[in-house]
Amino acid sequence: MMKFITIDDESRIPKYQQIIDSIIHNISEGNLVIGQKIPSINMFSEEFYLSRDTVEKAYSILKQRNIIHAIRGKGYYINRTTLISKTNILFLINKLSSYKLKTYNSFINSIGPNTHTDLVIYHCDESLFLNLLEKHKSAYDYYVIMPHFKTENLNHVSYTAQVKTAIEKLAVEKLVILDNVKLGMDKTYVEIYQDFENDIYNALKEGISKIQKYKKIMLVYPKKAVYPYPKRILNGFRKFCVEFKLDFEILDKIYDNMIIKNGDLFLTIEESDLVNLVKQAKEDEFVIGKDIGIISYNDTPLKDLLGITVVSTDFKIMGETTAEMILNNKKGKIKVPFNFIERDSL
């Protein structure tokens, strides 16, 4: 292996980084293969007249990136031989859903082949998120983070003091905050976001002519959920209803055998509530879009197929914009379009 490694004493690049770059380059060239043993820290330092600390730092970062692994008593080995690109990205999302995946897939399609992106889900769990960030804090060139967390009571919170502290430790040039930007950090970094309160308010205003024909509008907003939603959605809905003097009610869920009346309009957030509502409406022989109305939060291909009216962020643009900011090394704050898409259910 030593014949493939090059260390330039005249270069301004730190020696530990030269070790990392050289090993990664030789993996991409096929000179190093999975399972191949590499020299010990002492052997490497002696061969290239480097301090042990320098080699140890390089090996530590390579381990964090999962490029090499150590076997106690035996040494260090190449852990993977897939092309390790120059730009490594950690994509941290709070849950796996069709619209989160739409953002991720759009990002992957736009970021191009010269990057490597790891998708990790932390399930709105603060402890899991903090552990993941600590584990990977030096392993990536960019950290794309969707900050949505749950309290012990299963309510939504944008961040905690510990989460904010952990994120602030990342270099600003590596940080991309996606979807929810209520962190209050005094730094200039990439922010691609939704404005939950004003988005739903403005989107519903677009459909006011159709909405006003209904006698009562119900928002089905889960108070407690495994993956909770920002209360700003609730605030924007209330603001809309009060301004237009609409009779409204907040429901926790679509209950079994719930009373549904002609002239009701429902705005559902969770997929399960939408399914239960459609099922009950059909059982009670209501014609959706005529007798009762349905609006759903966040668009999916299935909602499009079924003709469900939605208010939704453009998740494709969210992913594309994130990739563009990284590729062009831009900083700043960009709000993603949020649309009212009318279909047959209204």
What does this protein structure show overall?
The chain has 346 residues and is an alpha/beta fold. It has three domains: 2-78, Orthogonal Bundle (Arc Repressor Mutant, subunit A); 87-194 and 315-336, Rossmann fold; 197-313, Response regulator (Rossmann fold), CATH 3.40.50. The chain has twelve helices and 17 strands. It has helices at 15-28, 41-48, 52-64, 98-111, 126-135, 161-168, 196-206, 208-211, 231-243, 271-283, 301-306, 315-327; strands spanning 37-38, 68-71, 75-78, 87-93, 115-121, 142-145, 149-150, 156-157, 175-179, 190-193, 216-220, 248-251, 264-268, 293-297, 309-313, 332-335, 338-341. Strands 5-4-6-9-10-16 form a six-stranded parallel beta sheet, with helices on one face. Helix 2 crosses helix 3 (52-64) and helix 4 packs parallel to helix 12. It is elongated and about 80 Å long. It starts with 14 loop residues before the first helix and ends in a 5-residue tail after the last strand. The relative contact order is 0.11.
> Structural class given helices, strands, pairing?
alpha/beta
Order of helices and strands: HEHHEEEHEHEEEHEEHHEHEEHEHEHEE
Mean pLDDT: 92
Distance between termini? 67 Å
Q: What is the rounded Rg?
A: 25 Å
Based on Cα principal axes, name the global outline.
Answer: elongated
* Largest sheet geometry: 6 strands, parallel
Number of domains: 3
Beta-sheet strand percentage? Answer: 15-25%
Total beta-strand segments: 17
- CATH H-tier superfamily of the largest domain: Response regulator
Q: Could you say what the CATH architecture of the largest domain is? A: 3-Layer(aba) Sandwich
CATH class of the largest domain: Alpha Beta
Query: Order of strands side by side in the largest beta sheet?
Result: 5-4-6-9-10-16
CATH fold name of the largest domain: Rossmann fold
**Poorly predicted tracts of residues:** none
